[in-house]
């Protein structure tokens, strides 16, 4: 998992739904636009719905490079966005996650549901096991991820993880904060 992808690629995990807070969509659009303006390639789940569609459309509108990966069984459900710079269709979800992660240098997690949590915890586990050193930024739009961070602290407090687990997650307040951290990382 230490494969070196194309330089300056950011994998974004996020919801295939828009969520209830308009700030979620605003941060998705701001992140997509900001990635493009920074010359960072967007790597994401290739959907054209929810936050996924918003981040991709914003990146495209700003002239960014996009790399989408979607499993065949979700092409209709998530409305596979075929007009991306690179559009990859995989056989399984596992293959999708692997291809996305292997083609990025950093991860940003916007608000999302079970799929986003699955993706986050997989890369977090890999980091904990020393399989990669890519930064993972969690965009905590209006406190969306506060309960997650409480859970991570609970896991540590109850002795199921070392406190170093917190070193592998960097909560940020919004898309602008995430972009500033990415700039510092890639700088």
What is the CA–CA distance across the termini? 23 Å
- Taken from the alpha-carbon principal axes, the silhouette is globular
Order of helices and strands: EHEHEEHEHEHEH
Radius of gyration using CA atoms only: 15 Å
Strand order of the largest sheet: 4-3-2-1-5-6-7
User: How large a portion of the residues is in β-strands, by DSSP E?
Assistant: 15-25%
Uncertain runs? 1-6
* Main sheet attributes: strand count, strand direction, barrel closure: 7 strands, parallel
CATH class type: Alpha Beta
Figure out the total of helices. Answer: 6
Q: What name does CATH use for the topology?
A: Rossmann fold
Q: Identify the CATH architecture.
A: 3-Layer(aba) Sandwich
| Number of domain modules | 1
Q: How many strand elements? A: 7
Helical proportion, percent range: 40-55%
Mean pLDDT: 95
Structural class: alpha/beta
Provide tags for this entry.
187 residues, alpha/beta, Rossmann fold, seven-stranded parallel beta sheet, globular
Verbal overview:
- The chain is an alpha/beta fold and 187 residues long.
- The protein has one domain: Rossmann fold (3-Layer(aba) Sandwich).
- 41% of the residues lie in helices and 17% in strands.
- It has 6 helices and 7 strands; from the N terminus they run E-H-E-H-E-E-H-E-H-E-H-E-H.
- The protein has a 7-stranded parallel sheet with strand order 4-3-2-1-5-6-7, with helices on both faces.
- Helix 1 runs parallel beside helix 2 and helix 1 runs parallel beside helix 6.
